[in-house]
Write a structure and sequence with these properties.
about 550 residues, elongated, 2 helices, alpha+beta
């Protein structure tokens, strides 16, 4: 069989050598059989010729014997003597000998014929085996060519990989050199930055002193004006307040008078408050202003009076949507918890960003002042609560809650007790002086919001199983579960609100309605319809007469 063209690899040369050697072995064995067959064929032909010659001689002798018998019977030829008998005996001896030879020849012929049959069978078997071997050799040659092509492809791929590896090594060396140079530049820049920060802090300190002096003058003027307005308002309120009024314990200076909450029945104003979703809305304790926050990264301050919602300023500085807000007890500052993992504090009157607290590794969905305007607690999706001190702008304690926090409230004016609602359907009670929770309550759905009554005796929980639940904190007992067909909690940070006198609970739904329940009976009072998209948050006015709601389509609605 001819060798494949282009054999140059050592393994191919070895394979070809072995195939040739096996071909020679098979051919030599078959060649000896063919030579034996040819030799036996020649011998058989010679035996046939010899047999034919002997048969001819036998026929000739038979004819001579017949002629002699005829002559002897007719009396022709020699006289009766011993010569014819002797000759006949000789001829019979020859005939017998020839017959024996003929018999041997026939026996030899039969044996040779059998050998020829066997050899022919063997030749056929060897030819069949040879064909199979040739087919196998052909398959091996095809596989060999395929392997050769594959090896060439692999060699080409290896060469490409080596070239790529060499290129990457060169790039790595270049990058290492650049990194070394960059580190040197970074060190130099950090030194320059430290120097600039020091100089900037000095300049800012000077600027702050000047601004504080100017603010002092402004605040004095505002204080005089506020005292005059408070004097006029007290004079007017003393003539109209009756025995049914109740004062919120969390408010100072007699602000936030609640004469009993009433069920809102109509929309008196609706505005587009932000450029995108409005995530939260909240009245301050006095009810003079409210703030909203949205995904447009803005916190806006509003004045609500006479059914009108008037913008008083916009608080900038957040790098992502703001989802929670809170006022300090003095109503001088407002904080915002943001999706950029930070908490920011602004001045309400001057709209300046005072602090930016970073340290969480997840979105901050809840934050609140801890009684003291200089202390803040925050809860994040990173499963931690953090206590912050605004005087040194640092985190003073990190509490590992074990589950993402969606909302939290504080239960005392000292700010030592915290209640947090979590993704794992649990409400955890904390004392910041200890590391672990002091108590835990499990609900049927993950908690989206918590709201505390003014006397801090009742806790309203909104859960993702589409229900509001009222808990008596004095007994740690579930008092009421409020739910209704059609009420669906759409967001993980949907905020429900408890009225100032803790008799009504309000929450927004996926269908755009604001549902209001009587928490004493658990009955639905009404479902307010104005929003066209899911409602995210609601907030009661401290008087209990008005309600604000916000949705994911930029709108804030005032109900009364």
């Amino acid at each position: 069989m001819a060798a494949p063209i282009g054999l140059s690899s050592p393994w191919r040369t070895s394979t070809l050598h072995r195939l040739r050697k096996r071909n020679e072995n098979e051919h030599n064995h078959l060649h000896s059989i063919q030579e034996s067959h040819e030799r036996l064929s020649v011998q058989l032909e010679d035996q046939r010729k010899t047999n034919a010659s002997l048969l001819s001689q036998v026929d000739q002798l038979k004819k001579e014997k017949l002629e002699l018998q005829i002559k002897a019977d007719s009396g022709i030829g020699p006289s009766t003597s011993d010569r014819p008998d002797e000759r006949r005996a000789v001829l019979e001896g020859k005939n017998l000998k020839l017959m024996e030879e003929l018999t041997d020849m026939h026996r030899t012929k039969g044996q040779n014929a059998q050998k020829i049959i066997d050899l022919n069978q063997r030749v056929k078997e060897l030819e069949k085996l040879t064909q199979e071997k040739e087919a196998e050799v052909l398959q091996l040659a095809i596989k060999s060519n395929a392997y050769e092509d594959e090896i060439k492809n692999l060699e080409k791929a290896i060469l490409e990989k080596e070239n790529a590896n060499m290129t990457i090594r060169d790039e790595l060396s270049t990058i290492q050199l650049m990194c070394t140079k960059t580190e040197d530049n970074l060190k130099r820049v950090m030194e320059e930055n430290a120097e600039l920060v020091t100089r900037w802090m000095q300049e800012k300190a000077k600027e702050a002193e000047e601004i504080n002096r100017g603010n002092s003058v402004i605040h004095q003027a505002l204080s005089v004006k506020r005292e005059r307005e408070n004097t006029r308002s007290r004079t007017a309120s003393e003539s109209s307040v009756n025995s049914q009024m109740c004062v919120s314990p969390s408010l100072q200076g007699g602000a936030g008078i609640c004469m009993g909450s009433s069920v809102p029945s109509r929309c008196i104003n609706s505005i587009e408050a932000h450029d995108s979703e409005v995530n939260t809305v909240r009245f301050c304790a006095s009810g003079n202003i409210c703030v909203t926050a949205g995904n447009d990264r803005k916190v806006k301050v509003w004045s609500v009076a006479g059914g009108q919602i008037t913008n008083k300023g916009t608080l900038m500085g957040s790098n992502a949507g703001v989802v929670a807000v809170d006022f300090d007890v003095q109503e001088q500052h407002v904080l915002g918890a943001s999706n950029d993992f930070a908490i920011r504090i602004w001045g309400i009157h001057d709209h300046r960003l005072r602090h930016c607290l970073t340290g969480h590794s997840g979105k901050v969905l809840a934050a609140s002042f801890l009684g003291d305007p200089n202390k803040i607690v925050s809860g994040s999706l990173d499963r931690t609560l953090k206590i912050w001190d605004l005087r040194n702008k640092a985190c003073t304690k990190t509490i590992f809650a074990g589950s993402s926090c969606y909302d939290l409230v504080t239960t005392d004016s000292a700010g030592t007790n915290i209640i947090s609602g979590h993704f794992d359907k649990r409400i955890r009670f904390w004392d910041i002086r200890s590391d672990g929770p002091t108590h835990t309550i499990s609900l049927q759905g993950k908690i989206t919001s918590l709201d505390l009554s003014y006397d801090r005796s009742y806790l309203l929980c909104c859960t993702k199983d589409d229900a509001l639940q009222l808990i008596d904190l004095r007994q740690n007992k579930m008092l009421m579960r409020c739910e209704q067909d059609g009420f669906k909690v759409f967001f993980d940070w949907t905020r429900a609100a408890l009225s100032p006198d803790a008799t009504l609970a309000a929450a927004g739904s996926q269908d755009g309605k604001v549902y209001i329940w009587n928490v004493n009976s658990g009955d639905l009072e009404c479902a307010l319809e104005e929003h066209q998209v899911p409602v995210i948050a609601v907030s009661w006015h401290p008087s209990g007469k008005e309600l604000l709601s916000c949705d994911r389509q930029k709108k804030v609605t005032l109900w009364a």
